[in-house]
């Protein structure tokens, strides 16, 4: 296997439905601008409460993706062009 470098970035996803939906929306949104997403680690979960009821679920994720420095191969570039 060739040597690789991965970058980790923090994302926060929100959903009115569940923590799983919040994580899914964060990953799917990030995948529109980041290539080669690899792993998402749930770092923190919380929720917001309004009038005694849960109004939204929030998930903080550390997401890793393959890092290709400027001038690297466009095929696996970190940003879609």
Question: CATH topology of one domain, anyone?
Answer: Dodecin subunit-like
CATH level 1 name of one domain: Alpha Beta
- Name the CATH architecture of one domain: 2-Layer Sandwich
Strand content: over 45%
Q: Gyration radius, to the nearest Å?
A: 15 Å
The arrangement of helices and strands along the chain is EHEE
The gross shape turns out to be elongated
Low-confidence stretches: 74-81
Total number of strands: 3
Share of helix, binned = 10-25%
Number of helices: 1
Q: Give the strand line-up of the largest sheet.
A: 1-3-2
CATH-assigned homologous superfamily of one domain: Flavin-binding protein dodecin
**Biggest pleated sheet:** 3 strands, antiparallel
Instruction: Briefly note the structural class of the backbone.
Output: mainly beta
């Amino acid at each position: 296997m060739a040597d690789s470098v991965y970058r980790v970035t923090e994302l926060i996803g929100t959903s009115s439905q569940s923590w799983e939906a919040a994580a899914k929306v964060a990953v799917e949104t990030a995948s529109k601008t980041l290539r080669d997403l690899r792993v998402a680690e749930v770092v923190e979960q919380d929720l917001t409460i309004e009038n005694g009821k849960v109004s939204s679920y929030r998930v903080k994720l550390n997401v890793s993706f393959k890092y290709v420095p400027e001038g690297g191969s466009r095929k696996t570039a970190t940003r879609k062009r």
